[in-house]
């Protein structure tokens, strides 16, 4: 299971395989109190660098235990976690968005 939780140290929401550890696969800078209210661009760690995708969002926020939700994303378990990105997300260029769309098709 992966966990979606808020990190005070990074002022944002993380997706990671364990709790109480700021190493993650995904990150979004947002201080909202409930993950369904997140509006922002998610950073996704691909194993070597961060990429950004506006299409990523939170759909199921039913708590299972305090601060824990199941993450519904088919993630490659071979990718190691890392610290959230230091720089704020940037907009994808039209070329990057097209390449990402073609890659996911």
Q: Could you list the spans in which at least 5 consecutive residues all have pLDDT below 50?
A: 65-78
What is the total number of structural domains? Answer: 1
- Helix-residue proportion: 10-25%
Mean pLDDT: 73
Largest sheet data: 5 strands, antiparallel
- Number of helical segments? 1
Count of DSSP strands: 5
Euclidean distance between termini CA atoms: 26 Å
Category by helix and strand content: alpha+beta
> What is the rounded Rg?
13 Å
Q: Can you put this structure into words, describing what you see?
A:
10% of the residues lie in helices and 21% in strands. It has 105 residues and is an alpha+beta fold. It contains 1 helix and 5 strands; from the N terminus they run βββββα. It has one domain (3-104). The chain has a 5-stranded antiparallel β-sheet with strand order 1-2-3-4-5, with no helix packed on it. The chain starts with a strand and ends with a helix. The model is unreliable at 65-78 (pLDDT under 50).
What descriptors fit this protein?
single chain, 105 residues, alpha+beta
Compact overview of the structure:
This protein has one helix and five strands, in the order βββββα. With 105 residues, it is of the alpha+beta class.
């Amino acid at each position: 299971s992966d966990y979606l939780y808020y990190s005070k140290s990074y002022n944002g929401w993380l997706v990671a395989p364990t709790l109480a550890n700021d190493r993650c696969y995904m990150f979004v800078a947002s201080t909202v109190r409930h993950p369904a209210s997140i509006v922002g661009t998610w950073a996704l760690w691909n194993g070597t660098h961060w990429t950004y995708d506006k299409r990523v969002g939170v759909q199921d926020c039913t708590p299972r235990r305090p601060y824990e939700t199941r993450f519904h994303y088919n993630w490659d378990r071979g990718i190691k976690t890392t610290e959230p990105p230091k720089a704020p997300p940037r907009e994808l260029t039209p070329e990057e968005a097209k390449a990402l769309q073609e890659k996911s098709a």
